[in-house]
Amino acid sequence: MSETPGLPTPEKSDEDFWSSVAQLVEPPWNEPTADDACTMDERVLDAVRALAQRISTRALAYGAAGKPFDPVLMAAPDVQLALLRALYEAKLAVDRLAESAATVAGRSGANYAQLGAAWGGIKRQSARLKWPHAVVRTSAKESIPLHYAGGTAVVHHDADGDAWWYTATAADGQGAESEPVHGTYAEAIAGATEFLLAHARPDVRPPA
Prior knowledge:
By secondary structure, the protein is an alpha+beta fold. Helix content is 45%, strand content 13%. Helix 2 packs across helix 4 and helix 5 (112-118) crosses helix 6.
């Protein structure tokens, strides 16, 4: 195990891995730079352009005619409307992923002030209104949903055994149900995340 700088970085095989994962690091992130923001804009634009071309009436007509869709056609007003529709889909995707991230963080120890700070600095009350079920004052015993890598999972608590387990359906249609053997919520969610990533569509899998 290495430490840089002073932060434990155990591997999954280390016995203190899960206790380390459960500790909330402060500060949780470094502020994105202008270059980071520019790169994000470019990647989002690449994604929504691809969707716009798949749904654009004009682009579909070019495809049906066996003709290439020249990038200059993106300037057409109808294609820009298709792009706007694709951007709306991107917004819905961001909202779903944000709710999932807020729930995972909140159920693992983050408070509404920290969630609000991560979401552009909104106030604690606004974060509570946005994600009312993300943070609970008592131990979370109910089922907890997660959306990741194009799939969904639900993490459950087994009160009798005081253990966590998950059910999941991945983007490729594969399903899984773990045994109630996870000692913490973080361990169960990590197992679900690994399964969803392993069965994600090729375009959303991390590079090898």
